[in-house]
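Appendix B, example 12.
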Amino acid sequence: MRRLVLTTGEPAGIGPELSVAAAAWFAGERGAGRVPADVELVLVGDRDLLAQRGGRDAAALAGVAVHHVPLRVPSEPGRLAVANGRYVLDTLDAAIAMVADGRAQAIVTAPVHKGVINDAGVAFSGHTEYLQERAGVDKVVMMLAGGGLRVALATTHLPLRAVPDAVTAQTLDQVLRILDADLRRRFGLANPRIAVCGLNPHAGEGGHLGREEIEVIEPAIARARAAGIDARGPLPADTLFVPAHVAQFDAALAMFHDQGLPVLKHASFGHGVNITLGLPYVRTSVDHGTALDLAGTGKADPGSLQEAIVTALQMIRAGAQAAGSGASA
């Protein structure tokens, strides 16, 4: 049995209702034969909360497994409760335990509210960093996919003034290695082509608009190519994402969060997928936040969460095929 665990997110946000809607959709897809019968979806969260927020989809809870994690305090739609910041981490820890001991192959995450977790006394900058720390790996890479694009990030949640210092030789070497390896292992690409953005406008204009391209990015690309990674650049970000140009690549590596993600979200918002590369298991998530103003209204769109589940299944399948090819080689 292949198993995906879905953490249901901030209880005051849209995560619980989207998770139940996704469970109903998943059951329908499996019933129609579009999801293999040996794939199981497990929701991780408070069972009563899911039943309350599920609305017309709540009946789907009878057909999927729920790993019950109790709320710390009762939750109301749209109203954050600091005590439930710990509840959110409880759900993540339960999911991590399931992939760690082999009971599941992937974690799919509904959105969380970083502020309330920090207010609960836990330093938390995001799912990506939390999962990295708990997995004990040196580096992970955030990549979003959607609208025919894959955009990975060299740096993630940093103030803009901190980005140049964070774009180092070591960082780029690690990111390019992880990106290439997981495009092969998780996406089945035999020879992935990676476009690398410059940091500065016009990729530095030959050093006239900054020297990071010359001193850091170009040497990193040269080292990657010497190691068999098809990385090209540095390319000006404003022209890289022209459709005819970006179509030549399997993924783009942006130097900072708002360099690449606005383009991808314009192309796919509401149906994009956030993927963490470099973990020992598959992890996908939505491309949006908790939407406290929509919580409990029944108006939230489950499209991104459904795409996150589909992508996780595809990544599990590609990984199994890659492992099988390696065993037979």
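The mean pLDDT is 94. The longest strand covers residues 39-45.
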